[in-house]
Amino acid sequence: MTKQHLGHTARKRFGQNFLHDPYIIDQIVSAINPVNGENLVEIGPGLAALTQPVCDIVDKLTVVELDRDLAERLRTHPFLSSKLNVVEADALKFDFTELFNPEHPLRVFGNLPYNISTPLMFHLFSFAHKVQDMHFMLQKEVVNRLAAKAGEKNYGRLSVMAQYHCRIMPVLHVPPEAFKPAPKVDSAVVRLIPHQQKPVTVSSEKMLNQVCAQAFNQRRKTIRNSLGKLIDEDSLRQLGIEPELRAENLTLADYALIANYLDGLDKQS
Asked: Where are the domains of the chain?
């Protein structure tokens, strides 16, 4: 039996789980704290569970929706359509600079489909300098990974890159029954505030990403082995990094040191 909500069938391929708990919705909108005149962008508005209460507060909201039927429903919505700028697009490929206004940095929020949340974060980080803040509903485990510190078992590439770009603040725990259909996992809302000044200086973000990807791809190995193709043991020691450590033991500052060293070599060659 298909789950229907207001006549719309949740689509597996879009990872759709619709939020319906009024208390939780109210808590999320309070956390976002939308203010009239701000450049607000919602990703994946779905059935307008957050869109509606946000539009009760503000006069203008941009929504990015991939599902054709839902985009059409929002365009023709009797109460909301006049306030909405509906962008029918895949948020993973969308150029968010199109929505940028120098006087009003983007405030991005959304109940993100679980199957795209990590790649979407990486996509959004590339626009972080144009963003004031982001509020997302994610799988609780993803929020834990975003906030994890070096040495914790859920610390990974996402933790390092997210913390390079943003301050991470878990805001709210959300149980499965707040959704229809109920997912099999707990969710959480997280606030991401892009750093005005990055916590470490990195000469190439691309290199930082590559080093993290390589290290965490083989996270059980020591970095001597996992990063062996990029950097030798002596160079690691010269940087003050112990080659016996594993990927999860290195801090953001350690990864920045390695990335800057490798970027320097690249520029010399």
From this structure: 4-194, 205-268
- Structure token digits, residue 71: 């985009």
Characterize the bridge pairing of strands 84-88 and 61-65: parallel
CATH 3.40.50.150 fits 4-194, yes or no: yes
In 58-153, the DSSP E strands lie at 61-65, 84-88, 106-111, 131-139
Question: May I ask the CATH architecture of the domain 205-268?
Answer: Orthogonal Bundle (1.10)
E strands present in 61-105: 61-65, 84-88
Shortest CA distance to 105 belongs to which of 35, 25, 198? Answer: 35
pTM: 0.90
Determine contact, residues 61/54, Cβ cutoff 8 Å. yes
What are 78-98's pLDDT values in tens digits? 999 999 999 999 999 999 999
Q: Which helix or strand (DSSP H or E) is residue 27 part of?
A: helix 22-32
Residue 269's contacts (CB-CB under 8 Å, 6 or more residues apart) are none
pLDDT digits 0-9 by tens, 198-225: 999 999 999 999 999 999 999 999 999 9
